[in-house]
Amino acid sequence: WSGPDPMAFGPRGEVTLRWVGPEGEELERLQLDPEAFCAWSSPGNATGGLVYGHYGRPQDLAELRARGVSAQGHLMLLRLGRGSPAQKVAAAAGEGAVGVLLYPDPLDMAGPGGGPGLGGDTA
């Protein structure tokens, strides 16, 4: 990469998170802010169970394997911090996850006034 070149992003459409039951029935639909999407995500849908992987670090994923928990074919829920989002997604993909949901834990973020919390503009 040698300099800032304009990047073309596709149109932003509806962004939703759907919780579905064992028979595929929709249990809940959450409308998400289309302005808060990751422009480098693959387009499409990902369906699977949910596996919590703490920060998604190698030691976190090793702990899951030691407990007999597999991310294969599932979505991983990972906390932001203690590594880059790109590292977390790559590690989850290496474990066979079909998608990653990253979330900011208020304990890991500096909120208004410098204490733990999330600011009003936190996507």
Automatic annotation (TrEMBL):
Coiled-coil annotated spans: none
Gene3D superfamilies documented for this protein: 3.50.30.30
A cellular component annotation (GO) from this entry: external side of plasma membrane
InterPro entries reported for this sequence: PA_dom_sf (IPR046450), Peptidase_M28B (IPR039373)
GO biological-process terms attached to the record: endocytic iron import into cell
Name of this chain's protein: TFR2 protein
Source organism (scientific name): Grantiella picta
